[in-house]
Design goal:
heterodimer; A: alpha+beta; 2 domains; 4 strands; B: 4 strands
Chain lengths: 133, 139
């Protein structure tokens, strides 16, 4: 009897856990109940980009061919020597259907000591960054 | 006896289900923290970019031409491309979402909604770069 009770509770727990994860993923990817707040995926992408985590950046982009991935790795390694991030500011964003646009301002210090402030607008589709400008 | 047993099993299952939801939420670490400091955000929309937004909203090319040079207009045209790569031909809404400023340089972010040349609804983000009171770039 006790074994049955533990089994039923365990099955319920596993189902509850999986269903919650599934629902959250679908709602996030489809942009349902989307607000104008900062997207967790956009934040993760920007932090990974500034910290030169090429694998994390690739994970937040649509699946790419191996050559594009290698080029991204090279660009990441080169940028390590070029600039040091100083600040990351979320300016704002909005969603429409499955698309979401998130805008950031990035401040970096170049090798020659000059500081630069530049914007980056991310377009997300289904939780993946499909465009950067 | 059988009914009591069924109710008990169902109750245990629902308890497990709710526990699973709670465990999922407890283990969710949330969005990644921003390890960098953030600059102060602008309280109000810059006047120069507000004029540009108004010209876009009113479909007024004459005003737009008076606000920036030809190169910057070219950058604006490139910025107003939908995620599908088609130019936005029917602008319905231009909204200032936020901006920041540092060392005399101001960045003002905008979101544009409309229809692209393929007839699809589109949403686009672009940023106006303002220096010394002049629009010097669009990204």
């Amino acid at each position: 009897m006790i074994r049955t009770a533990i089994g039923v509770v365990s099955v319920g727990m596993v189902l509850g856990y999986i269903l919650t994860a599934f629902v959250i993923t679908v709602v996030s990817d489809q942009g349902w109940f989307a607000s104008s707040g900062e997207s967790p995926q956009a934040r993760a992408y920007m932090v990974a980009l500034l910290q030169r985590e090429a694998e994390n950046v690739a994970a937040l982009r649509p699946q790419q061919d191996i050559v594009s991935q290698a080029m991204a790795q090279q660009a990441s390694q080169q940028s390590t020597q070029q600039a040091k991030p100083l600040s990351l500011t979320y300016l704002g964003g909005a969603s429409q259907g499955v698309f979401s646009v998130q805008i950031y301002a990035v401040e970096v210090r170049a090798n020659d000591g000059t500081q630069q402030l530049f914007p980056l607008a991310l377009t997300l589709l289904g939780g993946k960054v499909v465009g950067t400008r | 006896m059988n009914e009591t047993r069924a109710v008990l099993v169902l109750t245990l299952f629902v308890f497990g289900l709710v526990s699973g939801v709670v465990v999922n939420r407890l283990l969710d670490t949330g969005p990644r923290a921003n390890p960098y400091p953030s600059l102060d955000r602008l309280d109000t929309e810059p006047q120069q970019s507000a004029q540009l937004a108004a010209a876009l909203s009113n479909n007024d090319p004459k005003s737009l031409a008076g606000l920036m040079d030809n190169d910057t207009l070219g950058s604006l045209r490139d910025a107003l491309m939908s995620p599908m790569g088609a130019p936005l031909v029917d602008i319905r809404n231009v909204k200032f979402v936020g901006g920041t400023t540092k060392s005399g340089k101001t960045l003002a972010g905008y979101i544009v909604n409309g229809k692209d040349a393929q007839g699809s609804d589109a949403i686009i983000g672009f940023v106006i770069d303002i220096e010394h009171g002049q629009i010097v770039g669009v990204n």
